[in-house]
Amino acid sequence: MKSLLKPSLSTGLVGLFFFILVVLALFAEVFVSRTPEIDLAQIYANPVPVSEFQRLKKISFTNKYGSFEMVNTNAEESLQGPWQLVSPQTQRVKPDLVGKIVENLNILRIRSIHRYEPINVTSFSLDNPNFTLFLTTSKSKDYEIKLGLINPIDNSAYLSLSSQNQIYQIEPLEMALETYDLSQIVESRVLALDFSKLKSIEMLEGTQSRFLISVGRESWVDGEEALSESKVADFLSKIEDMKSSSLLENLSAEQVQNFQTQIQANATILKIAYNDEVKTYYFSEIRRSLPGLGAQFIGQYLFSSDELKHFSVIKKDQTKFLQTTTKQLK
What is the pLDDT of residues 148-164, one digit of tens each? Predict the structure, then answer.
């Protein structure tokens, strides 16, 4: 009888053991399927979501030379722009600047990763960064990138991303944006126009409109009369090719007020209407010495955008388009 019981007991134990193994296997399967996979190789290669930056609305950055804000005037918001600097001056951005910024972010390499916690933020100078970059994508999603302590021995730096709860020690950046000043950001042309978004162009003397053309169904028109396509194209190119001769920086409050008064008293106003906004620009001939700047700009034009906060000087030959009449475009 005992001999008959032994096989059945051992068989039962084996069955129980097998049942436990099956349960553990199922538990492990469920546990593994619910555990997110972390691609450490990708994080170390580049944590910046560069794919999100292929279409951008706006970029601004701050370094030791100040804060610079630029907007994309391209209808498709592609990186090629053209880009318009709106602060601290109204000036066209160099055509390859934004593309190079994104390209540098694309080749960023990581040496080590640290927790984003107060002691590390302070130790790596991310509470007082050397450089801060803000990007707004075409989907209106904002990103902030900070560059903190730069190691003087190997030029490695510490970087944080608004979308990541980490601090990254990175290899030296090829593009040292923390050292960029205004001259490295802008070109000599003033305005960045996207002709595909233009709706109308108007010029006024004071409050009196003396020139108005708009986009009709098939061509530019003066009222209802069609204009010459080639002549309008030449007129637009002259506006786009307008260059500044001097950017007036570090102005005192007294100088700004003086320039505002001069422009408001005597200015030709250029209004460029797009599908979704109107940009206003002021041109005032300089007929006397400017405070703090002397007589060097007499005969040229003082230029400013609609906020009348930033000013530049444009030579007279660059503003000939201001004398254009609608009759000349027919």
Answer: 999 888 889 999 999 88
The Cα–Cα gap between 186 and 113 comes to 35
Same domain, 119 and 142: yes
Q: Do 226 and 272 have their domain in common?
A: yes
As given in the structure block, the two tokens for residue 203 are 């010029």
Asked if residue 110 and residue 174 are part of one domain, the reply reads yes
Helix ranges (H only) for the chain are: 2-33, 40-45, 97-106, 118-123, 229-240, 253-265
CA dihedral 280, 285, 291, 292 (to 10 degrees): 90
Q: How far is CA 305 from CA 16, 59, 95, 236, 322, in A?
A: 83, 19, 21, 18, 16
The side-by-side arrangement of strands in the sheet containing 246-248 is 225-226, 220-222, 208-215, 198-205, 268-274, 278-285, 301-305, 311-314, 246-248
Q: Which long-range contacts (CB under 8 A, 24 or more apart) does 286-291 make?
A: 286/313, 290/255, 290/258, 290/259, 291/254, 291/255, 291/258
Between CA 71 and CA 8 the distance in angstroms is 82
Q: pTM for this one?
A: 0.82
